[in-house]
Amino acid sequence: MLKVSGLSKYFGGVAAIDNLDLEVEKGDIRGIIGPNGAGKTTLFNVVCGVYRPSQGNVFLHGEPISKLSSSEVARRGLVRTFQRNAVFHDFTVLDNVIVGRHLRAKRSLLGEIFNPRAGAREDRQCALEILEWVGLSAQQDELAANLAHGFQRVLGVAVALATEPEILMLDEPVAGMNDTETANMCEVIGNIHAHGVTILLVEHDMKTVAGLCRNITVLDFGKKIAEGAPQEVLNNHAVIEAYLGTEDIVA
Amino acid sequence: MLPFTVGLYNTEILILLLINLIMAQSYRLVTTAGDWSSSHVVLMGAGAYTAALLAKLLGWPFLITVPLAGVVAALCGLLIILPLLRTLGFGFFIATFALAEAIRLIWVKFHYPFGGARGMIGIPGVEIGPWDLSEMIPNYFLILTITVLLLWIMYRIDRSRIGKILKAIQLDAQLTESIGINVPYYRALAFATANFFAGIAGALLAYHQGAIDPKSFAAVPMLYLIIYVVVGGVRTYWGAIICVIVMTWILEMTRQLGPWRPFIAGAIVIFVLVVMPGGLEILITPIARGLRKVPGLGWLGAEPRRRDPVQNER
Amino acid sequence: MSLATFLQSLANALVLGSIYAIVSVGLALSWGVMRMANVAHGEFYMLGAYVVYVLYAQAGWPFPVAVASAFPLIAILGVLTERMIFRQTRGNVLAGYIATAGLAFMLQVVASQIWGVGLPKPIPVPYMGAAHLGGVAIGWQRLLVVPVAAGMMLLLRYFLFHVRVGKALRACAQDPEVAALQGISINRITMLAMLIAGGFAGVAGALMAPLQPVTPYLGQTIIITAFIVVIVGGIESIGGAVLAAFMLGIIHTFVTTLVDGVTATMAGVVLMAVVLVIKPEGLMGRVRA
What we know:
The complex is a heterotrimer.
Chain A: E1 2-11, E2 14-24, E3 29-33, H1 40-47, E4 55-60, E5 63-64, H2 70-75, E6 78-80, H3 93-100, H4 109-114, H5 117-134, H6 149-161, E7 167-171, H7 179-194, E8 198-202, H8 206-212, E9 215-220, E10 223-228, H9 230-234, H10 237-243
Parallel strand pairs in A: 3-8, 3-9, 6-7, 7-8
Antiparallel strand pairs in A: 1-2, 1-4, 4-5, 9-10
Chain B: H1 2-32, H2 40-57, H3 62-81, H4 89-109, H5 111-114, E1 127-128, E2 131-132, H6 136-159, H7 161-171, H8 173-178, H9 183-209, H10 219-232, H11 237-253, H12 261-275, H13 281-292
Helix pairs in contact in B: 1-6, 1-9, 1-10, 1-11, 2-3, 2-4, 2-9, 3-9, 7-9, 10-11, 10-12
Chain C: H1 3-34, H2 41-58, H3 63-86, H4 93-115, E1 130-133, E2 136-139, H5 140-143, H6 145-162, H7 164-174, H8 176-181, H9 186-208, H10 218-233, H11 238-258, H12 261-278
Antiparallel strand pairs in C: 1-2
Helix pairs in contact in C: 1-6, 1-7, 1-9, 1-10, 1-11, 2-3, 2-4, 2-9, 2-10, 3-9, 6-7, 7-9, 10-11, 10-12, 11-12
């Protein structure tokens, strides 16, 4: 479904991604891990159209997407979340998700101006369902800026979800979360996957990755050094070496 | 209703106030998306010159020249924003000023057909069907009607999905892109639409005064426009409107201060931006919240907000 | 265009480019350091011209002294602007520049009230006569701009690269957070940037005072030029500003000779638009993360 072939991305003389090949099947939950600076977020940015690749190509359903802008990529069904807490701070939680619905809303803008009620109800309904799903219904009228960190990240996922993506790319979804928040987010991600969305996630937290993902790809210095099911990857010699001294990866 | 009680001089003031309301609210449409341009009054001029030329040289009727003036202004606006889609913030402010100034200089330079630095005179009055609406009082009602109509349309836009998208773009353009919204497209759309309204305002001005000159569309009027929106506050729909009314009143009261008025305007801008960057909204929001509690008037109230778009760094 | 005209235009372009360079370099510096720019920069230039009017034309001081005095006088104005406006609006880029737009108008009104808005002030030309080189004639008054500009650029370069405070300034322009961690006081640096910006703009205006009509609205045209130069050259790049200044000087001079002044201004604007489309960070600017 998503294929990266011969991908390289240079910044100045440094190869953030070096001749990478990657393939994600439909229905997979794929984890991308690697030590700091391995190129994980850069990979996200290239795939999603924020950066152009220096070499190589990205294919979605067999179609090349490397020359598309990030909004075009999103329109094709590939949506990403951000490492930072990216929500619309001054909107309510509900409004945040409603904005996300724009992509799938079926009304003309002009009609919208003179007769807003019809479509607005539909958007609102859908947004409420999504909030229900991710467990944020109670806070629907709260300003996004006032939410706790963990909830803000869940909201970020909810907004991305509102676009009905085929592939959802999550950039460090549980960063900065405590155990409860992490467990909650994992449940949300699991639910999303169960509904047929393919998931690609970057994470540092090994427990999360091992628990959630079906397959893991390991990057180091922009190259792939291992790939496979969690158990084999995490016991792989090269992977352990890459992480030596930085983390204990007993799952 | 009003003109009969306040006399012709004040009716003139009211007419200019109405035109300023269109300008302020349409400028707010641009800034809602986070784009602070300095080309808005020049685009008003584009509308003014278009209507003036079509009416004076070709004899076309009011009902055709005015919408056309809006269209021309919108197209000129596109000419300005299309090279600037990757430019934001301060660069956008200066670049729009420079590009707009280039347009304004065309009017200054070419004596034919724009009349050069002295501008155009002899713009015909307004005739719609059998009615001559050039006299002050009928003119007032005509402009009042158009203003109310345009303000209503802009209100609907603000409340609509596109209004939300523009606010989203201002809050976090990267996030907005990531959910499939084509940000440059919407910026350009908001810009062109706002300029359409500015063009109409310009056409109304041209017909009303019977004469226009390039100086009316230069930097000082642009400063005042910025003040209306900055001091009035971008967040609330009514902020700019209230500011226009209050400032027009103040400027009238201080007419004898003459040349010092831009000085005072500048001082107000600095004061507001340094002391209360949210503008009048600081005063409006509590009032709006109160209004929301009154049944039937809830639609007047702004939504609760906490941070100010002017404060976000770009 | 005959060879003589070409050479003459080239000489004029050199002079014009030098002035543009002096005016714009301070702007590039302060914009780079503060991430905000000063719309009233043109008014600094205008007030520098009035310094020469007051000190030289009215009080009779020697011309070089009058010009040199413009530096500290307008530099102080720059520092005041930083204290009162930029420091208060730090982090709010939009507010900063709109506030300086307000300041620009205030300064224009003050100047027009003090010195009147009618006919421009006459300033006697201190160095009459012209140099004749190879068929090209340049008035001495014009010509002296070039070595002064060169001298100022060299001094600035020395300051930025070999004096501790200057190096701190450059560090701040590149990365204010890291600079702060190193103990560099952001407040001092921004004040310094505005001091240089004000001083340079004032001197530019002072140098040009005998060569152009001095009115309170002098700032309005030079500000567009200054911003075009900085946008084209790249915001924090001094070298870019100098390069762009001469490019613009050449464009303005040659288009004025071939067509007229108004078209020359428009040509400059078109150049800016082209750069913004092709390379928005400027010719020598770096893409900001």
